[in-house]
Design a protein that fits this description.
By secondary structure, this protein is an alpha/beta fold. It has two domains: about 325 residues, Rossmann fold, CATH 3.40.50; about 190 residues, 3-Layer(aba) Sandwich (Rossmann fold). Helices cover about 45% and strands about 10% of the residues. The strands form two sheets. Strands 1-2-11-3-10-9-4-8-6-7-5 form an eleven-stranded mixed β-sheet. α2 runs antiparallel to α18, α10 crosses α13 and α27 crosses α28. It is elongated. It starts with 6 loop residues before the first helix and ends with a strand. GO terms for molecular function: rRNA binding; U3 snoRNA binding. InterPro entries: P-loop_NTPase, UTP25, UTP25_C, UTP25_NTPase-like. One of its GO terms (cellular component) is small-subunit processome.
Length: about 725
Amino acid sequence: QSENSDKSSAESDSETEVEQVSVYHKLLATLKTSPESESEEEEDESESEETGESETEMDSEGSQEIREADGGEEDKNDAPEQEEATDTAEQTLGQEQADGADASCDPSQGVIDEFTDVKHESEFSLETNFMEEESGDCNADERDGNSPQAFSEDPFKQHMDKELEDKEVEKMSTLPKTSSQSQWPRLGQLTFSSTLEKHKTLKADKEVDVKQLYLHKPLESTWPKVNKQFMSSANKPSNPSFTPLQRELFCIMNTYRDLFYPERNALTNGEEIRHAYCLHALNHVLKANDQVLSNNAKRRDQKPGTDNDDYRDQGLTRPKVLMIVPFRECALRIVHIFISLLEVNDKRKIDVSNKKRFKGEFGSDPEERPPNLKRPEDYEAVFAGNIDDHFRIGVAILQKSMRLYAPFYSSDIIIASPLGMRTIIGAQGEKKRDFDFLSSIEILIIDQADIYLMQNWEHVLHLMKHINLLPLDSHGVDFSRVRMLNLNNWSKYYRQTLLFSALQDPQINSVFNKHCFNYMGQVAIRNIPLSGSISHVVVQLPHVFRRLEAENLTSVIDIRFQFFVDKVLPEYRDAIMSHTLIYVPSYFDYVRLRNYFKKEELNFTHICEYTKKAGVCRARRFFLKGEKQFLLFTERFHFYKRYTIKGIRNLIFYELPTYSHFYSEICNMMKATDNGVDATWTCTVLYSKYDAQKLAAVVGIDRTAQMLQSKKNVHLFVTGEN
């Protein structure tokens, strides 16, 4: 569907279409009434946003922090002021964005003065184009069409052509999911869950023939070449196309089940995974578009006046795939993979419009990064290239051409960051907001989900609440071509969600469990860490784990604060316990502790993600020299900076770290202390039974089980002993 910014023509389209079938009457009736239900949803949402608003600044400033900029705000004296300031900042940011800060990607702007791309609009329109007979792209469709059996076995056709019944939808809305476990060679422990009757158990294919995967024709030949970089001599010659990890992941993706893989590692398997999901997304888009183009030709050739219901092949809006990634560099790599997969050989280069502009806005200058900046390998891998976290771009693909910066309503794939999505979706009351383009998303890919915990998780939740809703306008759609599943508002039951993260986290689990409704069911990889990151602590150090007793999850925050103030802090008030670093994962806990320390007039300094560079240097110097007894230190500062803090003699983990390797990293900072009086070093960790996942990642599953079952509230482990 080409973008139609002219409201009157959109209205006239809807007036002519509305005379067709009763189901269209119902749909069009909802187009103007849905704001009521939307406002209810927004009211529910506003409460959670009030608690998360003070973290918003980090989204745009997080990436600046890496560049050693002095951006960011000095800490406010109390939490309410911080929340008010950032709330205003976010509204201003949203308004600026709507006014055209990234206008080229903003569908609400219609035709943008600074970037008009009219010549490509008709070229990439699905409605006005037909299948090129000489194109190899249509061979897959022809091959399938000649064999009814092959056609019906194509996972794409099976998934999209399945007609759900009302009782099945009711089941998915009300009944709990049933689950089963399976062990796969490379992925490990898998949990399959589904509400509908049990599907046949999925088994890992030891070998995969590319021709059996029903890949779109050009991908069969280009994928082995593009993926060659990940293939080692260890892979059998009979398996030339996939690594063992890719093979098992793609087997699941290709069945259109939801997938949660929490073992993505930027250093080891990150690019392997990116290539696998790019193959799946592109395969889906090419098949969907071919179906539309093929049906265009059939409709053109049919007799006038013939009314045929067989051509329902699209959604209410054109975008089919939404890819959420944290930085511009990730979007750059994805587009490069798409181009590589579409180019059959050197002679058949695909036409990519706006490529130069894309390279300028999403590429990076290697000289921007200071050459003497030494950081851990995983940091370098995550923060490579252009790390701006505010972007969105539409991509249209048609046969042998790709269009970058396509208006969203003319795009097949949207690549965006959570903040980029947040500023266009907007909030209730904003004049310029748009989320209709999310109505017919068929594949949602959320990569590197753990990084959004460090940016602003509220943006991810906001997106999940606005995906697959009925559009508020018709956007010039031909209702006779829209699938019944979209007309029935059942899009969310057909949407496949692929979620990749570096860790297990309750918030990420919650999105997968509460916002994914795929009728095909879900697959989650649930491997248990046998040894924790404590085994990587090299200094000789006693680790004291102190358990909090909390009746429910909501009370943990207050109980932890009270426990710290009453039981832990008094032990460290003595001057002999100087050089104490307090590691605080949550910014809200940090503000609360900072205010308490000020009220009690304790001798302390503090560093958070908003502290200016001069303030950071000053705090580190005071702490090293012992002029300040305590240092309050936030996890997000460590994530974005990874400075070595010198002078630590006593460590307090106010809460277990989100990333388990941060535990050993912080502990090992003690060896940076020159005087080496390690006999006085201490490490204290606060935890509750609700921290089981984080605890297992630090101490291992066996110790975690002992600690949670034991009646003792204090557990001691010593590392670094000879």
